[in-house]
Design a protein that fits this description.
two-stranded antiparallel ribbon; binds zinc ion; 6 helices; CGNR zinc finger domain-containing protein; about 170 residues
């Protein structure tokens, strides 16, 4: 996985992991591989624990409604992940930037990837483009990468559900 200028893949991976928390190190490794991450070290239980902590911190970013609060929470993650950016061409994947030390365990790698990816997404696309679904009983998180930046629902299914409900409320 390369961090594109908008951090899209990284922020989508964070949402995917937060919405369905991985239950084991093996599952975490499989899902990261499926998302295009190159794993250079075996994935162990510590990686899973670190990932759960990362997702807890990240969900606070999602649930922060005021922009300065949201920025402060992302900045705290960036400060903790701090490493100088470097060019790398590991795994024959072409030259790209890493914002972390080389050969980190997956837990640390994910923390830095999610912190930097989220910062790039919010700065590049808009501070408001990270939220939970507008349907009250749906807690699904999504990064809004739409053209207009006005996505309110996690899925078409939830959009339809809310439309039906608003229609019923009007005719009742
Ligand atoms: Zn890389
Ligand atoms: Zn939803």
């Amino acid at each position: 996985m390369h961090l594109n200028p908008y951090g899209e893949d990284a922020v989508n991976l964070a949402a995917e992991l937060a919405n369905h928390r991985p239950r084991g190190a093996e599952e975490l490794a499989d899902r990261c591989r499926a998302a295009g991450l190159t794993l250079e070290r075996p994935v162990v239980r510590d990686d899973l624990l670190r990932t759960q902590e990362t997702l807890d911190a990240w969900e606070k970013v999602v649930d922060a409604t005021a922009e300065p609060e949201r920025a402060a929470l992302v900045n705290a993650m960036l400060a903790e992940a701090a490493a100088y950016p470097r060019l790398t061409d590991h795994a024959d994947s072409g030259w790209h930037l890493h914002y972390r030390e080389e050969r980190q365990p997956l837990g640390a790698l994910l923390f830095s990837l999610i912190a930097v990816g989220t910062a790039l997404h919010l700065a590049g696309r808009g501070m408001h483009r990270l939220r939970r679904c507008a349907v009250t009983e749906c807690v699904t998180i999504f990064a809004d990468t739409s053209r207009t930046g006005r996505q309110r629902y996690c899925s078409q299914r939830c959009a339809n559900r809310d439309a039906v409900r608003r229609h019923r409320a009007r005719v009742a």
